[in-house]
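User: For my dataset I need records formatted as: sequence, then structure tokens, nothing else. Please produce one.
Assistant:
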Amino acid sequence: MSKIKAVNFRSFKRKVSIYRSTFRKFINLLVKDTPRGIDRLTPKIEVEVWKEVDCLTCANCCKTMTPTYNTKDIKRIARHIKMTPEVFSKKYLRKDRDGDFVNKTQPCPFLNLKDNKCSIYTVRPDDCRGFPHLSKKKFVEYAHVHKQNIDLCPATFKMIEKMYEHYQ
């Protein structure tokens, strides 16, 4: 069994450049010809992934991506940091081209860059709570997300790597 270790981002990026195309094609094949039992397999693989990947040594998601904020997120976070939802939205958020509320800046304004911890972790957006969405109920429904996230998230990359090994 592998031991949890710090993410070596240089090594991760090198692996992504080598396997990106293979893994994206593999994901496409899984969608086109979905293996029986894949939705029972992904939670098992997810457990293995979290034994090997330490998000706090990476935080690339918080540094390079932004969650979408729903109305409940905005109210909850604003209350937590003692602002009105309107002031919170004006200070931290913007609307993207789809009309969703997202962070104005990257890295996330709530990321502490010294230790990669979230300053609003207990009230973080729902999108952050579920990230990287490794074992959503239906793999095929999130395949497009996994395809995108293999470039950004070592945990997603590791999951697809393990699935690739399993089905080869």
